Amino acid sequence: MLRSLNNFLKTLLDFVLPDLCVSCEAPVEKKRRFICNECWKKLIMIQNQPEWYDRNLIRSSFSLFEFREDTEIQKIIHAFKYSGMKSIGIILGEEIGKLLKEKQADYILPVPLHIAKLRERKYNQSLYIAKGIEKVTGWKVLEEALKRINYTKSQTGLNFSERQKNVSGAFRVNKRYSELLRGSSVLITDDVITTGATINECAKILKDAGVREIHTASCAFAGGN
């Protein structure tokens, strides 16, 4: 009885206050509760994956969409990172997972936030992408395997060399996971890859820790924009 009442109230609320697209504010269908079908169609899926990464560190990289300013994808990422819409990360992670499930990885490692940034933002967006991928692939998320030990300024507006310098020495492997990671294959997740300086730095630390194979995945790629 109680469950039926809850379902009825949820249906009523959905009708009176429908979920709105984070891009155009039109009502959305339940399948993608954050974006309408028309805006989803405007997203540019990457067909040929860019090879931005250091091949000595990273085996492969996958990004779902092209990131372009003042477009649907920017609004989606902004809502995901700054408006508490964690479900966006999980849904996009599931989409990534569907396209990567034929690959093999032992663990998924979200790019970590510094503890001060985590307190400010309340959650790590990369973790929710990882959780979405985990739901589809079954690869285990290791939330605390990578640690961010330096509080770095935002990478926005920095060029490639400045970004490299900014994140140099910013990460370390959590000693509790050293044995688990040694000889493993991992997937590093992030929301947007621009120059790849952050993920390359994470990969360098993981290689030094004995990780055998490193792949990366992101919701969007902004390099060259």
Task: Please describe what this structure looks like.
- This protein is an alpha/beta fold and 225 residues long.
- It folds into two domains: 1-42, no CATH class; 43-221, Rossmann fold.
- The protein is built from nine helices and seven strands, in the order H-H-E-H-H-E-H-H-E-E-H-E-H-E-H-E.
- The chain has helices at residues 2-16, 37-42, 72-82, 86-100, 115-121, 125-137, 160-167, 178-181, 197-208, and strands at residues 60-66, 107-110, 140-141, 146-148, 171-173, 185-193, 213-221.
- The chain has a five-stranded parallel beta sheet, with helices on both faces. Strands 4-5 form a two-stranded antiparallel ribbon.
- Helix 3 crosses helix 4 (86-100) and helix 4 crosses helix 6 (125-137).
- The longest helix has 15 residues, at 2-16.
- The protein is globular.
- The model is unreliable at 8-17 (pLDDT under 50).
Topology:
Elements: H1 2-16, H2 37-42, E1 60-66, H3 72-82, H4 86-100, E2 107-110, H5 115-121, H6 125-137, E3 140-141, E4 146-148, H7 160-167, E5 171-173, H8 178-181, E6 185-193, H9 197-208, E7 213-221
Parallel strand pairs: 1-7, 2-3, 2-6, 6-7
Antiparallel strand pairs: 4-5
Structural class: alpha/beta
Q: What percentage of amino acids are in beta strands?
A: 15-25%
Percent range of helical residues = 40-55%
Total strands = 7
Mean pLDDT: 87
Number of individual domains: 2
Summarize this structure briefly.
With 225 residues, this protein is of the alpha/beta class.
